[in-house]
Amino acid sequence: MTTLYLVRHGETVDNARQIMQGQSQGELNENGIRQAQEFSEAWKDRHLDAVIASDLKRSVDTARIIAEPHRLEVMTTSLLRERDWGSFTGRFIPELKGEVWPDDIETLENLLSRAGEFIAYVRKTYPGKKVLAVGHGIMNKAIQAVYYKKSMSDIQRMSNAEVRTLEL
Fold it and tell me: By Cβ atoms counted within 10 A, which residue in 1, 72, 100, 113 is the most buried?
């Protein structure tokens, strides 16, 4: 059985400002760097076979901090990218309430399909291994929704640098 430790990246400048990041790169703020360092310290003695990250900078930076004591290279995949929020990207989140969603937002069907592809990728590539994957809030929710066969709304929101364990 493969164990997947699903982690959300550390807090970013835009998280703190309530800006919709979507598939923009993002930059960890001081708090996000500290969150990743604290996670790394807490997990330094745990066995990990692989560390994977979304190919967006905020996840890669978090994963590198976590992977350092394990001397593991961080592998990246676009399957873990955050949902593409289209023209909502870069907007102040509280102002989006009640707005009609534009057609350029990634569909829920596509998001859940990517989540399923990611789970299949981890199972196939890392059978019987312990894999830590650093992703994003909505994408991590989608992965859990597929894994547990639940709707996205049934999955609790993940905090920055929070981990959830899935046995694949």
Answer: 72
